[in-house]
Specification:
114 residues, 4 helices, single chain, two-stranded parallel ribbon, alpha+beta, flat
């Protein structure tokens, strides 16, 4: 994070997700806590994307399927219980863009007259 920040950049760190394995999730919790703490120290120069809660089910546990904006159940996680299916990746990408748009002007080009 410091290396990127010293070069004038902003870090976007995608946190580790909740997994099907409780033991693996506990290890991921430790990593996420450390990274989130470091990101907070850097203010707006580090963005932590919390995929853990983003992909937790209604009961807070692992979910292979989640509801999309239309209310349809969609598969967001790969069969290995760790990785994401394309729909899950799209959810993460939208959140990354949403967070970047909060800090940077990503859409003003749309309003410029040619």
């Amino acid at each position: 994070m410091d290396l990127v920040n010293r070069a004038g950049g902003t870090v976007v760190w995608i946190g580790l997700p909740i997994t099907r394995s409780e033991a693996q999730t506990q290890r991921f919790d430790i990593v996420n806590a450390a990274v989130q703490k470091e990101a907070k120290k850097r203010g707006s120069k580090a963005i932590f994307i919390d995929t853990y809660t983003m992909f937790a089910g209604d009961t807070g546990g692992f979910a292979e399927y989640l509801e999309n904006a239309k209310g349809d159940s969609v598969k967001v996680r790969a069969g290995d219980g760790v990785h994401f299916d394309p729909e899950g990746g799209d959810i993460i990408a939208r959140e990354v863009l949403r967070q970047l748009n909060k800090q940077f002007d990503l859409t003003s080009w749309r309003n410029k007259k040619a």
